[in-house]
Amino acid sequence: MPHLFGSDEFTKGTLRFAWHITTLAWFGFAAILVLQQNNASAFLYAISVVFALSALCSAYFTQGKHLSWVVFGAVSALCYLNTVAS
After folding, report:
1. DSSP one-letter code for 44
2. How far apart are CA 76 and CA 66, in angstroms?
3. What is the pLDDT of residue 81?
């Protein structure tokens, strides 16, 4: 593990913090999707594209080992299907 600012403990703490803050951000993002009242197709299409790119990057950089690409792909598909249905 590389040392950030000279400490292995600091590096691990930074990674742990980044993991948890990202989780919190995605839960907030999920709340936005659930709570949206308007059928904003452009908004959902943009979300679909972002999650599709996230899925592709995750699948490519982890060579498919980290299964986040499955979840990102599912969110992308659901948002896209919602734009097509409306």
Report:
1. H
2. 17
3. 92
For position 86, what pLDDT does the model report? 67
- The DSSP annotation for the chain comes to -PPBTTBHHHHHHHHHHHHHHHHHHHHHHHHHHHH--S--HHHHHHHHHHHHHHHHHHHHHTTT-STHHHHHHHHHHHHHHHHHH-
* C-beta neighbour count of 69 within 10 angstroms: 19
The DSSP symbol for 66 reads: S
Return all residues near 52 (Cβ < 8 A) that are at least 6 apart: 72, 73, 76, 80
The string of pLDDT tens digits covering residues 14-71 is: 777 777 778 877 887 887 777 776 667 778 888 888 889 888 888 887 788 778 889 9
